[in-house]
Amino acid sequence: MSGPTLSPTRLLEAVLRQDLSSFIAKSFHTLNPGIEYQPNWHIDLIAAYLEAVTQGEIKRLIINMPPRALKSVTVTVSWPAWLLGRNPATRIIAASYSQALSTKHSVDCRALIQSPWYRQLFPDTQLSKTHNQKQKFMTSQHGFRFATSVGGTATGEGADILIIDDPLSAAQAQSATRRMRAIEWFEQTFMSRLNDKSKGAVVMVMQRLHPDDLTGYLLQKPEHPWTVLSLPAICPYTHSIQQGRVSRLWQEGELLQSTRESKAILDRLCAEMGSYVFSAQYLQKPLVSEGGMVDAKWFVYRSQELIDALEFDAVVQSWDTAIKAVQVNDYSVCMTWGICDLGLVLLDVARFQLEYPELKRTCLLLAGKWKPVALLIEDTASGQSLLQDIRRETQLACVGIRPKGDKISRLAAVTPIIEAGRVVFPKNAPWLHTLEQELLAFPHAKHDDQVDALSQFLTWSKQKSARIRIRSWG
């Protein structure tokens, strides 16, 4: 005997309470009367990631996506309303680059909560009669949504969920001072607003604007805790994306939402705004405009599964060591390369700021992990101690490298190897994004340690003596 049948209205309400993507669609109609809602898989995917944050499965989430792709409607307006409907005691702080924009998001969220369908859907969520302002509104169960700006104050406020929606405008992002100010505010003020540092969640949604914007800064940190969902307007390579019940095989060259922005529209935008601005805002790959020694079209990607199945003639590690482990110096970098018929395969990039004793220990650990036939170490001031100690204390084959010419000329000498497609990168390696940015922005990137390690290995690999040594070591 079957149970009672739900009416279509009750069934829809049940779906809206449980499924954030459906709630977003309903919210769009309320906020944009008369405008057609265009559903798309990327909205379903974002909703699935936000549901994982809601369930405590993800604590730190970065979403990078193009302008006008419903990032604010989904993350900053609809999701907080959905959270407060499911739990009226939830405390939320949301920030944007300007107070006016942040307040608009707050007003839109409040409009959802005050709508008749929302009150029918979540009858237990009622706004306080005494604390119901544009910037901050509270529920009768002391939950709230508070709107502030980057650089603004949140003194006395504590939250379960922190949201950042575009921490910088496009113009602000071109100022090193404004970028640093946003970073300092994020680290020193905003992050301290979490009530429970172990359980609270932080979500940032933004278009990329500069290599050193807040996303770039956070992802350059070793062992960063962030889950990253990057949604460029044009898919850079074929890959599968899955979160919860949402999965998508995204094909190389496929558009994020072709029904809204066709290839012709994107081409026109690129021509109008220039390739560097377009690369940042629409492709989520910001470049320094004076760079350009390496073209992103030269990069070859292979799956980790394919790389794991390869048989290498040799594994070689290339070291670029920093003089001191302080903020102003470059990182020390160890690149591990596999040499085979497929080409020169970058297996791993380890990047850190360590004082010398720990640097030497790390060198030995990485050598033990990858079993290289050779360690390439620059035979200059920064690398001489490591080179001498490894030679004296171990049986590892160390090759002292004396660089010729400056950094620019060294990279220029090996760019034909990259352009010919001989250099292979693992598609989804956690270090790949930072490496690509440094290569594409060189010689004007903030750091060049990875470029140095790469140039050193590729220069060595061209030499006839390298091929002879590989045969003798093998």
Description:
This protein is an alpha/beta fold and 474 residues long. It has two domains: 274 residues, Rossmann fold (3-Layer(aba) Sandwich), CATH 3.40.50; 178 residues, Nucleotidyltransferase, domain 5. The chain is 41% helix and 20% strand. It is built from 17 helices and 17 strands. The strands form three sheets. It has an eight-stranded mixed β-sheet with strand order 3-4-5-2-6-7-1-8, covered by helices on one side. A seven-stranded mixed β-sheet has the order 11-17-14-13-12-15-16. Helix 1 packs across helix 2 and helix 3 runs parallel beside helix 4. The chain is elongated. It starts with 7 loop residues before the first helix and ends with a helix. The mean pLDDT is 90.
Question: What is this structure's SSE topology?
Answer:
Layout: H1 8-18, H2 20-31, H3 41-54, E1 60-64, H4 71-86, E2 91-96, H5 99-114, H6 116-121, E3 127-132, E4 136-139, E5 144-149, E6 161-165, H7 176-190, E7 201-206, H8 214-220, E8 227-230, E9 239-243, E10 246-250, H9 263-273, H10 275-281, E11 300-302, H11 304-308, E12 314-320, E13 332-340, E14 343-352, H12 356-370, E15 374-378, H13 381-393, E16 398-401, H14 407-419, E17 423-426, H15 432-441, H16 449-462, H17 464-473
Parallel strand pairs: 1-7, 1-8, 2-5, 2-6, 6-7, 11-17, 12-15, 14-17, 15-16
Antiparallel strand pairs: 3-4, 4-5, 9-10, 12-13, 13-14
